[in-house]
From TrEMBL:
Residues 267-407 form the DUF7224 domain. Pfam families: DUF7224. The keyword Zinc does not apply. Keywords: Membrane, Transmembrane, Transmembrane helix. It comes from the Bacteria. This is DUF7224 domain-containing protein. The chain crosses the membrane at residues 38-64, 84-110, 122-142, 149-166, 196-215, 222-242.
Length: 420
């Protein structure tokens, strides 16, 4: 069949512009809400939010094309080509329509991330292609089995439930079988866990193979049995790969990608930081203020997900305003919640707010930058502590810091003389 004839006769020609418009108009906010500035990986992950909708469109197109071939009696005659050779060209526009929808989603997310020149993560694209193809083939089989009044609605509703709903279920591994967890990737200090890619790829590939068997062998008893076996094996294998993944399948980004400069503090930033020199200058200023106040600042301040020994987390975003940097340093100086607190032992959570606010103010954050982020009572207490002599402030900080490092040590938030 000539390409122009195929495009002119395919329902994908009508569905593709509708899908693109839906992605632009209905999904734009969701595609851009959580992208990380400068990161193509984050833009690719955010674009995955559109995958259930693109897959649903592919299933609907596939069902319609299946009913067309069935009503035309194509396979009741004696075709020169095999059933698979007849089917594949008819379904290619459906997969292409889904890919156009996903391409639109990637462009929207990448533009919001200001990612510059680059390409989406190839692993994500491979999973998308397999998921779109699987949905197209399953929809096509429904079209071959039922009439258009049943097959198309059934394909649309079934595909949307199968692709979108697992992300809301408590059984976490199910979402990874349809690529539903990939849209949570990735913060600047994260990278995708390859197991999520493999889980989605294995299950979708199994569905594709099962559908191909049913198409090629005309849904005979042996073909049906083989298709069921392949689907079960693919689903079981994918479940084994994904069974212990979290809802967001991410892991810490390799620290080798950090760009480190300076000494005491050594400042390590990700390449996506918009203005690294300004960030380093403001970080050094904040570290100097903290040291002048008696606060111990580690030798290294890093944006890594899990700082090592003698290092603290620099909790900032790539495009943060320089005014946010002191608060980012302060956040990294707070001790992590100890294991004893996670086991239910008494822990002074109420001290973290005032101590964090005091660190932020001491590092150079202006009070109005903390409004709306810190409890007003905690901010007021921190400001009151800041009016005290430096030795009093340092003693207050160290006492409450020790309380935050373990369980069972009560904080002493009240100032001498009854202030609180």
């Amino acid at each position: 069949m000539l390409l122009r004839t195929l495009l002119r006769s395919s329902s994908a020609t009508v569905a593709a512009p509708l899908l693109i418009g839906f992605v632009l108009l209905a999904l734009g906010d969701d595609l851009t809400a959580w992208v990380t500035t400068g990161s193509w990986l984050s833009a690719t992950g955010s674009a995955g939010f559109a995958l259930p909708f693109a897959a649903t469109a592919c299933a609907g197109i596939g069902a319609w094309e299946g009913t067309r071939l069935q009503r035309g009696g194509v396979f009741d005659q004696a075709p020169v080509r095999s059933a698979l050779a007849v089917t594949v060209p008819v379904l290619l526009p459906a997969v292409a329509a889904g890919l156009l929808g996903m391409t639109t989603a990637v462009l929207v997310s990448a533009n919001a991330a200001n990612a510059g020149a680059g390409l989406p993560h190839p692993g994500f694209v491979a999973v998308w292609m397999l998921v779109l193809t699987a949905n197209t083939l399953v929809g096509y089989l429904l079209g071959r089995r039922f009439g258009p009044l049943i097959a198309v609605p059934l394909a649309l509703i079934g595909a949307f439930i199968a692709n979108a709903y697992p992300s809301s279920w408590h059984v976490l591994w199910l979402r990874h079988l349809v690529g539903g967890g990939l849209s949570g990737c990735c913060a600047v200090d994260q990278t995708v866990d390859a197991r999520a890619l493999w889980a989605g790829a294995v299950f979708a590939a199994a569905l594709c193979l099962a559908a191909v068997l049913l198409i090629h062998y005309r849904a005979g008893a042996v073909a049906v049995a083989a298709a069921v076996l392949v689907t079960a094996a693919g689903g079981g294998g994918a479940a084994l790969v994904a069974h212990d993944l979290d809802a967001d399948p991410v892991r810490a980004r390799p620290e080798a990608e950090l760009v480190c400069r300076g000494d005491r503090p050594r400042i390590c930033l990700w390449p996506e930081v918009t203005d690294p020199q300004a960030v380093r200058d403001r970080t050094r200023q904040a570290a100097t203020r903290l040291r002048d106040a008696g606060v111990v600042v580690p030798a290294t301040l890093t944006m890594a997900a899990h700082p090592g020994e003698r290092a603290a987390k620099l909790a900032i975003l790539p495009d943060d305003d320089p005014a946010e940097i002191p608060a980012g340093i302060a956040s990294g100086l707070l001790p992590p919640i100890p294991e004893c607190a996670e086991k239910g032992r008494p822990y002074p959570f109420e001290a973290s707010g005032p101590v964090g606010a005091w660190l932020s103010l001491t590092a150079g954050t202006r009070p109005h930058h903390l409004t709306g982020r810190v409890d007003p009572r905690d901010l007021a207490l921190a400001q009151q502590v800041r009016t005290q002599p430096r030795p009093v402030q340092l003693r207050w900080y160290e006492t409450n810091l020790r309380a935050l490092e373990t369980c069972g040590t009560p904080p002493q938030l009240r100032l001498p003389g009854g202030g609180s």
